[in-house]
Amino acid sequence: MSAAEEATPRPARAPARPAAERQAPPMDLAALIEDADTRILVCCGSGGVGKTTTSAALALAAAEAGRRVVVLTIDPARRLAQSLGLEELDNEPRKVEIPGIAGELHAMMLDMKRTFDDIVVSHSTPERAEQILANPFYQTLSSSFAGTQEYMAMEKLGQLRAADTWDLIIVDTPPSRSALDFLDAPNRMSRFLDGTMIRLLTAPARAGGRAGFKFASAGLMFFSRIISKVLGGQLLRDISAFVSALDTMFGGFRERATATYELLRRPGTWFVVVATPEPDALREASYFVDRLSSEGMPLAGLVLNRTHPPASTRLSATRAETAAEAAAETGNGDPAVALAAGALRVHAERMTLAAREQRLADRFTSAHPEVAMRAVPAAAGDVHDLDGLRTMAEALTGPDGDTPTGVPRTRVLPARRA
Ligand SMILES: Nc1ncnc2c1ncn2[C@@H]1O[C@H](COP(=O)(O)OP(=O)(O)O)[C@@H](O)[C@H]1O
Ligand SMILES: [Mg+2]
């Protein structure tokens, strides 16, 4: 195959087969991360599936392939952060020293509050910035509002892209329950910050007493009074002050959110959806894949992370189980036979688990036959150092057919013969 053909990571159309035998197209992540046209890679998926680890592993692989890479991690596990040289939240990329590496790996951990503060400072006069930063409502919003993290991740991505010093930016996404939150946050955030909702909520308070009735419906008044009771009048006043102070920035926020969202649509941006072989994670992945396609955002494929392929697939679960029983019956307490029976049982369990995982993967592929797939086996322990990342990178980017058991890396178990 020529280099040009190899460097075509677009998901190939799956061959027409009966649904049960449908095979996911292979995902060529090696070609994708080495391609000079690939500038942004976004790793999405529901919580705990391995987005952060996958982002770091792909970043390492791309840097080892000679590219100048920055990985924007969000909430990395402590030991992984340490192995990337990230001791604390740090809003600037730091170079990870890796002896003999062809390219460069830089890593950073998103500091959402500082990112927000920076926007405020760069968008207002020093006095106004000071007012906003000191506002208690702002402090809550910038550190704990649902969606702030997603919005700031996108904001940071926009900044990294604008700097244009990176061949490749790999973005991890926040640990939200739903993968869709990442795409929805900018919109939600700018809607929130353009103050419509805040204005409505604070209208009666600002208009003062009964006069508010003229402007606000009874329902809204009621709602606002409850809010006022629950949150306290001081908070409402804080919100009001915050909104007035932000007035000059509204356009800025909306424009930024829109621009960054558009960035995700530009050629050179690819999404990698990560899921574990579990119904919930795959359902989230499924929603996300549909959303990407309706938004016209390119999907590299699905990483099926933490699969449990058996060491050998020649002996089925049933045959292993039967053999284990036979051994136990005829072994007469011979410890060697008991050991063999135990090993057969472990193999049977492993085959059963792998079959379940493959079934879930097949179900996903039946619903999304065009989505390329790569299965990444579970490592024995956590992936928290460069060696662990390298092993994972190999599983993510190694040649599709080159596995010890001969099972292609799109799968957990070999395909049934038609
Ligand atoms: N292939 C794998 N094998 C073993 N452990 C893994 C694998 N992928 C991820 N993990 C572990 O799973 C945990 C969650 O991974 P993480 O990347 O933090 O998920 P997310 O970012 O999606 O919340 C971490 O402890 C990580 O080390
Ligand atoms: Mg994470």
Helices and strands, with pairings:
Layout: H1 3-6, H2 29-34, E1 40-44, H3 51-64, E2 68-73, H4 78-83, E3 90-95, E4 104-109, H5 112-123, H6 126-134, H7 136-144, H8 148-163, E5 168-172, H9 180-193, H10 196-207, H11 212-215, H12 218-231, H13 233-246, H14 250-263, E6 269-275, H15 279-295, E7 299-307, H16 317-330, H17 335-367, E8 373-377, H18 386-397
Helix pairs in contact: 3-18, 5-6, 5-8, 6-13, 8-9, 8-14, 9-14, 10-12, 10-13, 12-13, 15-17, 16-17
Magnesium ion (MG) binds at residues 51-52, 74-75, 172, 175.
Give the gist of this structure:
By secondary structure, the protein is α/β, with parallel strands linked by helices. The protein has helices at residues 3-6, 29-34, 51-64, 78-83, 112-123, 126-134, 136-144, 148-163, 180-193, 196-207, 212-215, 218-231, 233-246, 250-263, 279-295, 317-330, 335-367, 386-397; strands at 40-44, 68-73, 90-95, 104-109, 168-172, 269-275, 299-307, 373-377. The chain has one domain (19-314, 357-397): 3-Layer(aba) Sandwich (Rossmann fold).
